[in-house]
Amino acid sequence: GQQNKQQTNNKQIVKSMSNKTMRQARFEAKGGKLVLADNVPIPEPKAGEVRVKVYACGICHSDTFTAAGVYGNEFPRAPGHEAAGEVDAVGEGVHGFKKGDKVGVGWFGGHCGECANCKKNVWVSCEKGKICGISYDGGYGEYLVAPHDALVRLPAKLDHKLAGPLLCAGITTFNSLRNAGAKAGAVCVVIGVGGLGHLGIQFASQMGFQTVAVSRGSDKAELAKKLGAHHYVDSESTDPVKFINELGGADIILATAPSTKATQQLLPSLALNGQLLVVAILDKPLEVDTLSILNKRGSIRAWAAGDSRDSEDTVNFSVVHNIAPMIEEFPLDKAVEAFDRMMSTKAKFRCVIVHNH
Hints:
Strands 3, 4, 5, 6, 7, 14 and 15 form a seven-stranded mixed beta sheet that branches. Strands 10-9-8-11-12-13 form a six-stranded parallel beta sheet, sandwiched between helices. The relative contact order is 0.15. The protein starts with a helix and ends with a strand. The longest helix has 19 residues, at 160-178. It contains eleven helices and 15 strands. The chain is α/β, with parallel strands linked by helices and 357 residues long. Strand 8 (187-191), helix 5 and strand 9 (210-215) form a beta-alpha-beta unit.
């Protein structure tokens, strides 16, 4: 009788766990508005998966891809690919992660390991690759379940609220710059002092590049210098091409702003073997005057963020060099307001949802 009672208790415990629910902000239908949902079942991790208790999640413009169904995702779907929290449960066959581990999940949401790109060790370009917040529910929910290879180990001293944006805007700028092939002392021009740009300036400066920030207006000059820029060019009052060429030309132009016009106008400032490094989705197709880059052997290169291994390098570099995003915090109750603020481009510079567990 005692044994049967114990078994019944165990079943009740399991049942009560499976009945546990959470809250999430999500898109209910394609093209719909972000809404708050209560009593959403907390997902169970399958084999090879890990459940993450999310403490904070950054809001990114690419979260609009979830609403638009750009990658053919199902609905309802909670977006969010800048999630930071801790391991809450592990599925069968998962090694290397345990309950309580401090982790995050970025844009890279898992890879197949079998396609041509995976065999070349470029996981982020996996032909069957998954995206957190698109392929499965992301960090706008209090919990998420992700493939174990998508998880990023976070340093103990890194605040969850600051970790999230580093897993998207951070890795995008850090990983592109460190793979650009430029040496310390090279001139690196960062277009824009926004969500991507304010991190790009910090990384460029800490990597030893002579860093030039270019933006419209004089109001961002002080901030750019504080972030580590050696020069600030107000493109409304100063000819940026003339200024950069007087420095010897740009070895790297990091295009972090969505403005095609701002990006195109700087091409004549490329140095010999200089490269335009595009990490933002530009608002219009890029038109190139090939004559302006031909004799300089200039190149144009695009760079997609990176995988979980690159994210770990990003957060570790950031902790060592005291690099952090500037954020605005919002509770989950105000997720819709936070999303709208991101869309208005008024955020300084990343909006972050903070879950109250």
